[in-house]
Amino acid sequence: MWEKFKSRLKQFAGYELLLGLRYTRAKRKNHFISFISLTSMLGIALGVAALIVVLSVMNGFQKELRTRILGVASHLEISGRNNQLSDWQQVLDFSMKQPQVLAAAPYIMAQGMLSYDQGVQGAIVRGVLPATEDAVAELGRNMKVGRLTDLRAGEFGIILGADLAYNLGAQVGDKVLLMAPQGQFTPAGMVPRLKQFTLIGLFQVGMYEYDAGLALVHLEDAAKLYRMGDSVSGVRLKLADLFNAPAIGATMAKRLNAMSETGEHYYVSDWTLQHANFFKAVQMEKRVMFIILTLIVAVAAFNIVSTLVMAVTDKRADIAIMRTLGASPLSILCIFIIQGALIGLVGTLLGAVFGVLIALNISSIIPFIENLFQVQFLAKEVYAISELPSDLIWADVLVIVGMSFVLSLVATLYPSWRASKINPAEALRYE
């Protein structure tokens, strides 16, 4: 049977292909069959186009959010026990020798309470070195007021997220009181450590988590306030390939712990772990949308079944005549598979072309629709991302096109098999 099938494949460019193409484009007496074929083709095209556009938009949102998160967070962080790293200079030197590491910067991370006038807000306080911090993050690009380099040791300046400063009611130039949770003993008892900082800048990255909860001070000022001495909380790294961060982090952790002479234990965390739940939620949403929209393509593809069933019924006499002239059941099977596959192929290619064009130009299409109907899909006052981003990944397009064509091909099998089983005598009896 297999040898016979292979021999038939060699003759595939024969009359089966010609008849399959002819049945697809021929003008039938039953126009309803042509209408069903057209709707099946358009349904597949719309499903494929919708799938490409939706996945591109979701990829765009994922990329935009990842860019904003990594504008503040780092690709890798190396820290020690109790949030202290005493030999941070050695860790920094070791990190910079790794070929995958582009930049490294020390940091101090602690909690604090900010107070101005009647406003009080909790915040994460990050001590940084402006010269090196700008190399591992993109906070410098997100400054609304001032510059990151305005932070100078001993001047006790502070840079706040725009929403944090708004909630406090503070403006640039105001004196903000920073309270450290670690207390100090006095004759009056335990009191928190306080230090007055001057607000010298504001940043806004578009992520509320950071804009309303992060404060930046100079590394030396943070060390004095939190009594860190010569220690820091850790070292932040920027990698050449951020998607390889988990593997690089695991390798560096093993090497650092193996070469530690002081018994220091190092903890290495990457950006995927720090925001694991968020990115898992986005990925899950993308998969669910793919499944839902695939069902739309499947419904359109399986309309080909009804098209071919009616076509087989309409062509029973033709099939019987071909069988009496010597056509094999496999030839009849191939004819109707070609007819159905062509419907699926044309619909898939049309959908792919329109989907790619829309995905590539969605940044122009959406503003046009908003201006035409005087609506705004993503209000700046509500959403962090006010424009609809799109990131077309060609691998996704290939998967969608392949999936659509396979579904169309599967839909042709049963009607084609029924056509190959038609008995010529029974078919011609009523003609």
Number of domains in the coordinates?
Answer: 2
Taking pLDDT < 50 over at least 5 consecutive residues as the criterion, the unreliable ranges are none
- Radius of gyration of CA atoms, rounded to a whole number: 33 Å
Q: What's the total count of β strands?
A: 10
Question: Biggest sheet: strands side by side, in what order?
Answer: 2-3-8-5-7-6
The percentage of residues in β strands lies in: 15-25%
Q: Identify the overall geometry.
A: elongated
Q: Could you spell the SSE succession in H and E letters?
A: HHHEHEEHEEHEEHEHEHEHHHHHHHH
* Chain-averaged pLDDT: 80
Largest sheet: 6 strands, mixed, barrel
Write the layout of secondary structure elements.
Layout: H1 2-10, H2 15-25, H3 31-70, E1 76-79, H4 88-96, E2 101-116, E3 119-128, H5 130-136, E4 143-145, E5 157-161, H6 162-168, E6 175-186, E7 189-203, H7 208-211, E8 214-218, H8 219-225, E9 234-239, H9 245-259, E10 267-270, H10 271-274, H11 276-301, H12 303-314, H13 316-324, H14 329-360, H15 362-373, H16 394-420, H17 424-429
Parallel strand pairs: 3-8, 5-7
Antiparallel strand pairs: 1-9, 1-10, 2-3, 2-6, 2-9, 4-7, 5-8, 6-7
Helix pairs in contact: 2-14, 3-11, 3-12, 3-14, 3-16, 11-16, 12-14, 12-16, 14-16
